[in-house]
Amino acid sequence: MIPDFQTIMLPLLEVFADKKEYKKPELVEIISNKFNLTEEERSELLPSEKDYVIWNRVGWAMVYLKKAGLLDTPKRGVYQITESGLNILKLNPQRIDIKYLEKIQTFQEWRNTYRNNWKETSSFDKKDVSNFQQDEFESNKTPEELLDYSYSQLKKELAIELIEKIKECSPNFFERLVVDLLIKMGYGGSRKEAGKVIGKSSDGGIDGIINEDKLGLDTIYIQAKKWENTVPIAQIRDFAGSLLSKKAKKGIFLSTSDFPKSAYDFVSSIEPKIVLINGKELAELMIENGVGVATKMNYEIKKMDSDYFEE
After folding, report:
1. What is the torsion angle, in degrees rounded to the nearest 10, for the CA atoms of residue 301, residue 70, residue 38 and residue 48?
2. pLDDT digits (tens, 9 = 90+) for 79-99
């Protein structure tokens, strides 16, 4: 199991006991080996998929140790232990975490400056600030992880809300929604052009057709059905048969519910290429492509550009 960033602090500081200089990639490798992480754990990504979990946690452990004056960066990208860090190791602590670092004056000064600035610019009251600090002590997640997991949870709740709303809409609205989504994804050209090729064919289980691209080099057949329970495999077989009768090569079957494993096995074994999109995937595509959703607020996370400060 990947250790949390507070658990990493002491083993990380112990690496520097030899007083040598280390770079972050070396430290990540050492910590990964120390905790016997598997290749899968070493390659695990944050929900945003923009950073590896172990790299993120080692990075934040280094940040806190540096703010406490236990580590220093004598030159760009290089870390080394300080005298204060060596003195802490001589005390043989059983664990180093945020609560432990709070006893160190250098860390206290940084935290007090940070808290004062935060309170001055925040609309929260003193109780909120106290709760925030307590949550920070008890949390095993780094700041990025807290943001990523919060965003992921909000996204999951929005996806559930979208599917429930779609189920309340008429079949005709659902089919139009699917068209809008496919156009946003780059299929069919404009809405007007797509309208020409998407008709009420009701032909053998085919709800409509759309161009694969703006030039109309190939056609994709669509089946879009609201479904409460798992879609029966017979529905997929009927759709595949309709594609064969049209000599079609590609089809998309969308549903507000899910498909059985047998359906995925079936479509992977036949010649017409059929993509199955269940309710969860449909909602995620709508969120990703801005269909049926509106942006409430944006947060832009920035980091220091070290290259800018190069002389």
Report:
1. -10
2. 999 999 999 999 999 999 999
Kindly tell me if the per-residue pLDDT of 136 is higher than 80: no
pLDDT tens by residue, 159-174: 988 998 898 888 888 8
Residue type, 215: L
Contacts for 103 with CB less than 8 Å, ≥ 6 apart: none
* Structural domains of the chain, ranges and CATH numbers in brackets: 5-141 (1.10.10), 165-289 (3.40.1340.10)
Q: Which residue has the tokens 């190069």?
A: 310
What average pLDDT does range 202-219 have in this prediction?
Answer: 71
Distance separating alpha carbons of residues 272 and 262, to the nearest angstrom: 17
Run of H or E residues at 78: strand 78-81
Both tokens assigned to 56: 């993120």
Q: What strands, in cross-sheet order, belong to the sheet with 219-225?
A: 208-211, 219-225, 250-255, 273-277
d(CA 215, CA 135): 55
